[in-house]
């Protein structure tokens, strides 16, 4: 407030020594403080308008730099107030002026802003076209890192639109230039995930998991290879984008390798100052500064730093990556220029890395605590955003990001619910799902995520043996009228609800093979437009369970066994072994005992009690049929421990608090 009072005095004073340019600068700074540090957006816009009128009256090019900065701030205000057409008009004027003067750094900046405006107007084609134009200019000028930034944003837009092939296209273009080209040719059969970082801070004011050191600021990077990206921060965002796409395509080994690289890259990009802590980093330009008087005057101006709300990550797990907010000029050294880009804050990148680490570890129940540890630590870090940065003490910038953090927290809770389901801890799954439901409402994403929550509720019911209620909840999910591009979360949830329903009709209690096959056909048609590796594996399991031919059923289950192995999905692998062993037993094949024994051991090791019980009973029957009573008795003893756990879960009344409010069919819960 003291700063605002001083700036108000500056713009109000009448003095011969106060030039028109000085007044324009003061009003610009006043508008910046009002916009960045308060919620007086209207007042900020008023000061910008007055400053633009002043700069228009100044003859010559002395006010050019201030004028471009005013256009930049005016665009941010229009974006904040969702007046996108006005933002486009302002950017058209500003871009033309920057191009006329040959100020490529400003042209890059306006390209980022223009692409964001197009995207927020749901004009994906216009957004990607703008990105390609910016990348072409950067290539022409030799600004290689800027070209990489444009490509990364293009990949992120493609991901947010569920255009996976297009995102992979950009990844393949960028990977050779990121110093990690081995990712595309990675063939090693083992990979490890780094240990989760701690979530402690020195002063409690920052939500970042670790307190960064304070080394001396490095100079401009030495361009040893002009075709290699020099910015470590850009490599971090590239790796985040890469991991999202690899998770989706089921290339788990590449994902784990990239995740380890991401953990290492984060250690190398710890913020050195407040700007970097808030996500502002430098990208150096190849072109040198104009040494003309006008160029020196422009270089002496102190520019505005970017200060606008980050683009929301996604509305699905993989949607948490963000676009750069803007590029803004900074004071420049004599022989090297750069722009500053605000992307995600250091804390946001760390939180997103926790989520990615949890997702990558989730399917592997041989180490059930790894995924849980990542997600729990990530939830603690995100939760600190809502406790330390409360509404009264937090800055406007933090409050503008509350929805981003609440969306991320809800996503982490949903994945943590999945972990508890995989561990057969239904009480913990219930509690976590209720928290996710609360945060879905807090971040205003309930309509978008209620289908995913309904699916998870149905899965809890199905694992608890309450199949009537499970189908009721699956039917809620199936009633969703979704679009695969506008609502990928709902589309995938509906497909998984179909597969789960088909598996119920393939079981003994509701055996209806005709209904299951109809469901299978519909699920296959949906999966063809989605290309999810985990869904493809689940479809092979459903195909094997419903197929009347013994040989085709075995072929599908062998395929699911192969796919689950490449996905490192231990739960799908256990189910595949169980069903495959059943089919070999029906065919009186000598391999049945070997497959069933392997399936029982695998299910027991990976906390899959239901599959362990089912496989164990089949194995015991096999021993009895082959007159091996001692082995049958031993197997019965091994089955008992798992059977007690399953019976306990079946008797529990899980999710009663949620059911009391949202039960689709009250008669089915009584």
Automatic annotation (TrEMBL):
GO biological process: cell division; chromosome segregation; mitotic sister chromatid cohesion
Keyword Nucleotide-binding: no
Record organism: Mortierella hygrophila
Region of interest (Disordered), ranges: 194-228, 292-330
Protein name listed in UniProt: MAU2 chromatid cohesion factor homolog
Keywords, ordered alphabetically: Cell cycle, Cell division, Chromosome partition, Mitosis, Nucleus
Compositionally biased tracts (Pro residues): 209-223
UniProt keyword annotation of Cell cycle present: yes
Amino acid composition bias (Low complexity), ranges on this chain: 194-208, 294-330
Chief location of this protein within or outside the cell: nucleus
Annotated localization: Nucleus
A Gene Ontology term for the protein's cellular component: nucleus
Pfam families, A to Z: Cohesin_load (PF10345)
Family recorded in the similarity comment: Belongs to the SCC4/mau-2 family.
SUPFAM superfamilies the UniProt entry points to: TPR-like
